[in-house]
Design brief:
This protein has two domains: 204 residues, P-loop containing nucleotide triphosphate hydrolases (Rossmann fold, 3-Layer(aba) Sandwich); 50 residues, no CATH class. It is built from ten helices and seven strands. Helix 2 runs parallel beside helix 5 and helix 5 packs parallel to helix 10. 32% of the residues are buried. It starts with 12 loop residues before the first strand and ends in a 10-residue tail after the last helix. The strands form two sheets. Strands 2-3-1-4-5 form a five-stranded parallel beta sheet. Strands 6-7 form a two-stranded antiparallel ribbon. By secondary structure, it is an alpha/beta fold.
């Protein structure tokens, strides 16, 4: 039996966010399996992002908060409603809306060592055919430094690599600056009680998923014993594609189907089962061994210097040292 529709503010929510490429999809998958949690009809609702935010979505907040209920029509009374939109971390309007309209929400933010995240985004940008095959990792980073420092002459940007009109607006060209996590987290901690925010690290999820999931359960207030015999499988892994154009078309089709079927459980659930069965076969056919990505020492040193102060600020902000030895 479905729950009686109440106002959005009356429900308990778990928002899984943080930085992109930091295991948020895997976290969402693990938590979706917990019997006390009801996941949104699809992972990244992106509901609270600004209309102008450079990510597509079927739903965006337009002044009527009750539309958020349409993403949880399958949920039962007493279940904790969960969604995962990593980019909420970077959108101040999302923070304002969550703080205002979801008073019973708790937030989990997953962070990742910034340089390894850049490398992952570089792979991902090529996987989805957004970055040219000829673009080196050093040139990719140099392009982002040029965007991040408006005082630099625009001629310093490596022209002919990433389309100039895309450089500022596209998500994959914001990777450098978005690795300065303390800048964004500080705003959340100023508006939302610290006991409603849980911060963890990608590296620790990869190393000890059981411990991290049990910590999240204790934070949320649900039974951690569920994960004692649980199998933690990595999802949404960044791969090197044989045919990135075909993969881009596959992703676009998948997102369109998800947007059309998300509130049609009779169709959505069988398609989800079919996708889980077929996608591993497709990925095996359309992926190849990952190439080694080598950043030059000059570029790496520049990145370490760029992030060092923010990592120290993050340590002070959270009260614990991130597991990133590069910045000590």
């Amino acid at each position: 039996m479905k729950s009686i529709t109440k106002s959005v503010k009356d429900y308990q929510y778990l928002i899984v966010g943080g930085t992109t490429k930091a295991a948020t999809t895997s976290l969402y998958s693990y938590l979706s399996d917990h019997p006390s949690i009801c996941a949104a009809s699809y992972k990244e609702t992106r509901f609270f992002l600004d209309i102008e935010y450079p990510l597509p979505s079927k739903f965006r907040f337009n002044g009527d908060i009750e539309e958020y209920n349409s993403l949880f029509t399958q949920c039962k009374e007493g279940e904790i409603r969960m969604e995962s939109t990593p980019d909420y971390l970077y959108c101040s309007s999302a923070l304002d809306r969550i703080a205002t309209y979801l008073p019973k929400s708790k937030l989990v933010f997953s962070l990742r060592e910034p340089i390894s995240r850049i490398i992952s985004w570089y792979r991902f940008g090529k996987q989805i055919d957004r970055l040219p095959k000829s673009l080196s990792i050093d040139d990719y980073i140099e392009n982002m430094f040029a965007i991040d420092s408006p005082s630099q002459n625009s001629n310093n940007m490596n022209k002919g690599t990433v389309p100039i009109e895309d450089t500022i607006t596209q998500q994959y060209m914001q990777t450098l600056q978005q690795g300065c996590y303390s800048t964004y987290l500080k705003k959340y901690l100023e508006q939302i009680d610290r006991n409603r925010i849980h911060i963890l690290y990608y590296e620790q999820i990869a190393e000890e998923p059981l411990k991290e999931l049990m910590d999240i359960c204790n934070f949320v207030g649900i039974d951690p014993k569920f994960y004692t015999d649980y199998t933690f499988e990595v999802t949404n892994r960044t791969e090197t594609m044989r045919n990135s154009s075909f993969h881009k078309q596959y992703r676009n089709l998948r997102f369109k189907m998800r947007g059309w079927t998300h509130n049609k459980p009779i169709i959505h659930k069988p398609l989800k089962i079919v996708r889980k069965a077929i996608e591993p076969i497709y990925l095996k056919m359309n992926t190849r061994p990952q190439e080694n990505i080598n950043i030059s020492k000059k570029t790496k040193d520049r990145l370490i210097n760029y992030y060092r102060d923010d990592v120290h600020s993050l340590t002070e902000l959270t009260g614990k040292q991130p597991p990133w030895l590069l910045y000590t």
